[in-house]
From TrEMBL:
Protein name, per record: Glycoside hydrolase
Family indicated by similarity: Belongs to the glycosyl hydrolase 1 family.
Signal peptide stretch: 1-20
SUPFAM superfamilies membership: (Trans)glycosidases (SSF51445)
Amino acid sequence: MNYRFHIAIFLSAPATALLAQPESQPSRTQIAIATGSIQDAPLTTTIHSAIPTVIPQTGAIFPPVGSIPHNFSPRGLQELWNIVGSVEDPPFTTTPVPKTPVVLPSNPPALYPEWFAPRPSKIFPDLKLPKGFKFGVATASYQVEGAAKSDGKGPSMWDWASRQPGAVSDGSNADVVDLHYFMYKEDVARIAALGVNAHSFSLSWARIFPFGVAGSPLNEVALKHYSDVIDYHLASGVEPVVTLFHWDTPLALVAYYGGFTSPKIVNDFVHYATAVFRAFNGRVKTWYTFNEPNVYCGQIASYPFDIAFSPGINKTTAPYHCAYNLLKAHAAAVKVFRSMRINGEIAFKNDNFVGMPWRANSTADKEAVERHAAFGIGIFSDPVYTTGDWPEVLKEILPPSILPRFTKKEQEDILGSADFFAIDAYRTQWVSSPPEACINDVSHPLWPACNQVVFFDSEAGWAAGPSPDPLSSWLQATPNFLRDSLKELQRRWPTKKMYIAEFGFVEPSENERQELFQITEDVARTNYFMTYLGEVLLAIHEDKLPIAGTFAWAMLDNAEWNSGLSARFGIQYVNYSSPILERVYKRSAMQMSEFFRAHLV
Ligand SMILES: *[C@@H]1O[C@H](CO)[C@@H](O)[C@H](O)[C@H]1NC(C)=O
Ligand SMILES: *[C@@H]1O[C@H](CO)[C@@H](O)[C@H](O)[C@H]1NC(C)=O
Ligand SMILES: *[C@@H]1O[C@H](CO)[C@@H](O)[C@H](O)[C@H]1NC(C)=O
């Protein structure tokens, strides 16, 4: 997750408008951009843009778009890596083979007296999950793989961005991180021991096509690697669920033509997707094209990907051109998927939420909710699930020079280009209208989405839910709103099958805990998962929602984008100081295991 800046609502406001955080907190800046929210400011405070200076003081300036020649030789690859700088070698480059089955530790003692909270197996014990339900965990290539330059991989934009001063709050990068690239057997064996039956992970486009583009060499070593990873999952009884793109854009594509701001991305993505479909058809049954396009396209115009780093990218138009090109890339890849008669299902991973009016009877807040829904989740869900076109409110506010309009043919291709609805359902919060006029004021910091996410009620100021570690201040645990939130998704974008593709929480202060017994006792995360899963049972049985799986973010601690290794989302601890990068189950992993053992049929 995510959240990383994960979550986020992109397009809730233009990047320039959202730079509301103090310059001393570059990581928060990203969060603010992503959420378009006001979590750190009282509602009445003017959101003023203190635009941080993003010109790197010491890091490499990103080369002007188009200035790097297409040179597909090893030397050309090294030239791309020179833009990134030096990369840390992995501590080991062989794949340890675990003793299976992995032996679990004893079950942790009950967290509370039963009169306060039931054991996981006793949460609605009579309600079972539907047959075939996916008890999943999730990861993403950049966040867990490490081996950043191993086996012929090309650089991704995150290999570059993580090195820019101020980009990652703790100064870490993901050169090594979990070294899941070499540790995948142990990782899969460890989740299999928990009873996990599905793992949602992403492929690194820059591993498979180091230069990204169609016509450039395919890296057979990488394709073989992912083939082995998929086979090991299948042999372990863990279904591989594959995402083609989880934000780690091949650097070459940005250097050549500005990445997703250019229509050239469509053909290159389809070319990459086709190679992957062909290679793994029959072994992978559930596919995603894109992870959280809403967040990704919001970042494309914001720190650290902004104009200072990628000359030629226009911050005002880039998020919308990205959305336009990405939707066309998605639809084109799905068209190929269907024409190849790939045996499986495909969609993309939505993020964000519709939200509730902060002041229940306020017309202004109800309208703000609609803008929040349209600019956040609707910008991708309306075209794919209901209309083939942008939400009306976007077309009303944004001229075609900013938001390109779809042709009839494009609309036909996009509408229906998903077999199910996937939502990264981390949280649901209130939405309010800015106190002053916004929609007709392009200089307003919240224009054009003109809404603010609020974390506390309008009456007494009580929180929507418990807060996580401040590193992930966009997040709250909001199980109480989950069912209504899912019902609202189903009402607006009806589907026959829904996955909760990610959900998760960062234990407060976990990164400051020194002792293992403190780290593994992740009570806040455990409560998050147990309360959400209980609500999922009710959503299935009482609300009749077609939820077919839940994927916990994350399988293990990982590189949380601009929060680095300090924001720990894992249900397993990873000891980054240990020479073997030791993994340890946290309480949340054990209790989730108990929950699913009791509720899977
Ligand atoms: C909001 O509207 C509801 C239903 O119309 C009403 O019962 C309630 O008193 C109103 N609340 C406020 C604060 O006006
Ligand atoms: C960005 O695009 C907008 C809309 O086309 C245009 O008005 C603006 O001048 C452009 N900005 C730059 C810096 O080129
Ligand atoms: C992490 O590993 C280091 C080196 O092996 C060790 O000294 C330390 O105690 C470990 N930390 C925890 C919390 O287990």
